[in-house]
Design brief:
It is a single chain. The chain is α+β, with helices and mostly antiparallel strands. The protein has four domains: about 280 residues, Rossmann fold; about 80 residues, no CATH class; about 90 residues, Rossmann fold (3-Layer(aba) Sandwich); about 160 residues, Distorted Sandwich (Coagulation Factor XIII, Chain A, domain 1), CATH 2.70.50. About 15% of the residues lie in helices and about 35% in strands. It contains ten helices and 36 strands. Strands 24, 25, 27, 28, 32, 33 and 35 form a seven-stranded antiparallel beta sheet that branches. It has a six-stranded mixed beta sheet with strand order 2-1-3-7-9-12, with helices on both faces. Strands 13-14-17-16-15-18 form a six-stranded antiparallel beta barrel. It is globular.
Amino acid sequence: MPTPIQPRIFALLVGIDTYPSPIPSLNGCVKDVDRITNYLEGLAQTQQVDLQLQSIKNEQATYRAIVQGFRQHLTKAGPKDVVWFHFSGHGMEDFTAKEFKTTIEPNGKDQNLVCYQTEGEPGPYLLADKELGVLLHEVATANTSGGAPHMVVSLDCCHAGSGTRFEEWEPTGIQPRTITRRSIKSYQEALQSGKTRSLESYLDGYFQGGDLSIPLAEHILLSACTSIQTAGDTKNGGIFTAGLVDALESSTGPMNYADLFARTRAYVQRKRLEQLPQFETIGGFDPYRQFLSGAPLGQPELYELVEENDQWLIRCGAIHGLPVKTKQAIEIEVIGVDPPYNKATVIAVGAQKSKLQLAEGVSLSANAFYQARITYLPQPPMEVLLSGDPTAIEGITKSWNNTNGLRWLTAEKAQSKQVDLEVQADDLAYRAQCLRSGRELFALQRQAEMEQLVVNNLAKIMRWERTLALANPKSEIIDRLELEMEILLAQNRKQTLQGDHLALNTRDLPFIQHQGNQLLGFLPKVKIKDTSQQLHCYLFHLRSDYSIQSYEGEYVFRPFEHPGQNEISIPLLKTHKGWGLGPKDQEAISYFKLFVTTEELDYQQLLQSGLGGERDAAWAWAPVGVSDDWCSLMMKVQLQQA
């Protein structure tokens, strides 16, 4: 037998405490690197992992050294390997190149990691988000045989830092990890005084030549705080890094990224309420995979419990599909509490969080971490007809989960009901069909333990359909928003289209020809009109394989960054996303759905991987502020072969 390939972890860890004057020094960044190093070395010993570790500290952590760490160390990772880049230090916003201001950065700012640089040393000292994106793409594409490595990025710094909290009172022993230019207040002022960054300074002129798009590499990003907050630094290390490693070290088994983030956020919020860690899935990264492994692990069915004003809430609401008004109660089960003291019901559904009534005798601690799953949702289920081989049908029904919104029926019971789906089982395969359209949804070879995958696929179809239908007709913000689509055609031609249904035909438009596929580039934009309120925007791509993907996570619209503008169009991606028709396809349909909220959304709860075998071709005024509001805008895109 061949020797199994030993898993490898390529880690690049950066920590900077002793910045040169006038940048204030920090206390715990090197300790962050040491703590992650200890965790990884323990992992290497206990799980026989081949650890390839490079750490860069203090004066060694220059811009050039970090770039070199990516290009000479991390690019050695292959498709079966794991890459982890961690940075602890200062972060800041600074004014971007004018070419980016007029294209992908309407707020005029880069988000930067502050590197070490001695006075008078030539070259940049800020590593911009755009440069980090390019470096990650280089790592993802360095080994062209077999795909990209599994990539994780964690940033314990304020990588957007407005500095607005810098002089506020902080608890004893906590220092913000942010610096700011206080003397320059606007982009125009920065441009006139020559304080914007030049295009040629980004990675030795990478963006010169006309293409300003940021290449996208699939990865998970865990960062210490929101774009207008600061990351807490202590003499013992960063609060975010401490929470991250504590969650890993205290785990009794494998964790997926969604669970890891929830535990890290709970730790940070107990230590520093004004710091809210961020979790972003970039390039379609599936958060329901095992940390530093990538193996599938879990489903989006667990929601965190939080205590606010002596009231327990579940981080799940109308935007996740909970019905606002029901005659029967929504029931939940608290994980980690022994029955019968683990029951609760939802007494009020909010946009993103809902109030709970704990069962009699249930006592929860504000200092503990709790999650819950919904065990009864009073909502019409999706009916599934099971037909064919009786033994196969029995195997499917034994794997059935009655809490996932599905109900199975036999042919006798289905006669008087409106059935949505049918699963047919024979000696060779399980085949699922949509009875409304006649379309085959998936076919799975019949073999041992395949019944659970059949049920899981049906649950994904149900969640996809319900996400597609999510809407808030009473929203107060929806009239301020409009969804647009910039289409990239052959020969770099572009068009901007509007409407809730775009029917695009190869006869009428010059599609891009690529390896037998006919493609278009899509760049969704949101037009924000007459608003002075901060808004959180989340773009989802609902594809025909029933996957729900978010390519670049959250975009936060901050009014103070756009003074004097009553209307602005914001690109929701840094580059066009290619999608289109495969060589044998006559038609492909996708939905681009935009959720806009007044408060941050745990958007990863809406994501899911596909069923496999997808048929489309993937290519690389001053209004009064409102709260607890959300709305959705949707555009159906239908591509047709002439």
